[in-house]
Amino acid sequence: MQVLQVQLEVGPDPAEVGRARRWARSRLAGSGIGDDEPLAETLVLLISELVTNAVVHTGCPAVLRMLFGCGGVRVEVADASDCPPQPRHAEGEDTNGRGLELVDGLADRWGWQREGAGKSIWCEVDRAPAMQAVPVAKAATAGKAAPAGKAAPAEQGRGGPVSPFRVRC
Fold first, then answer.
1. What DSSP character marks residue 165?
2. How far apart are CA 166 and CA 169, in angstroms?
3. Positive or negative torsion for Cα 138, 144, 149, 150
4. What is the pTM of this model?
5. What is residue 14's DSSP assignment?
6. What pLDDT does residue 90 have?
7. Helix residue ranges, H only, 31-95
8. Strands (E), the chain
9. Which of 78, 84, 149, 166 has its CA 20 to 30 A from that of 60?
10. In this structure, are residues 137 and 102 in contact, taking their beta carbons and an 8 Å threshold?
11. 6 Cβ contact list (under 8 Å, min separation 6)
12. pLDDT tens-digit profile of 109-162?
């Protein structure tokens, strides 16, 4: 299977999130995913959430990677923190705490894995003709099985979900 990977180093500054979104849009367009496609909007939102999570919660630089495969796009954000991601549930007017809920609701699969001294949080979105609208985010339910078609957020090295980026097309 042919996979194209591009990456961007992101500094530990919240202003870097906007730069990551602009960079991602240009790479999506270069891969044939139009700016007006729902898939592009979904991916840019996922990238925004994962990069924000890394920059805000670690205060360290991060690396954003996008992998374009035959069936979709994988987004990975690696940082130097070894702390696992902690999904939270925002209440009413809270202005933060929804990032991983959005990732869970929008991505077809997501999880995390240890990477060097830190970790990588990843998500995948399948590119399918049926994807005509951005899916509605669902509330994360900690400790419960993932719905059919969704991978439970799991550390890859411990029985994590099989990724289409690791199998042959």
1. G
2. 9
3. positive
4. 0.74
5. T
6. 67
7. 38-58
8. 4-10, 62-68, 72-79, 109-115, 118-126
9. 166
10. yes
11. 27, 65, 66
12. 999 999 999 999 999 999 865 443 444 333 333 333 333 344 444 444 323 444
Please answer whether residues 28 and 20 qualify as being in contact, where contact means their C-beta atoms are separated by less than 8 angstroms: no
Q: With beta carbons less than 8 A apart as the criterion, state whether 76 and 137 touch.
A: no
CA angle (94 as vertex; 47, 105 as ends), nearest 5: 40
Specify whether the CB–CB gap between 106 and 125 falls below 8 A. Answer: yes
Do residues 25 and 35 lie in contact, with contact meaning Cβ atoms separated by under 8 Å?
Answer: yes
In tens, the pLDDT along 73-120 reads 999 999 999 888 887 776 777 666 678 888 999 999 999 999 999 999
Read off the tokens for 38: 């729902």
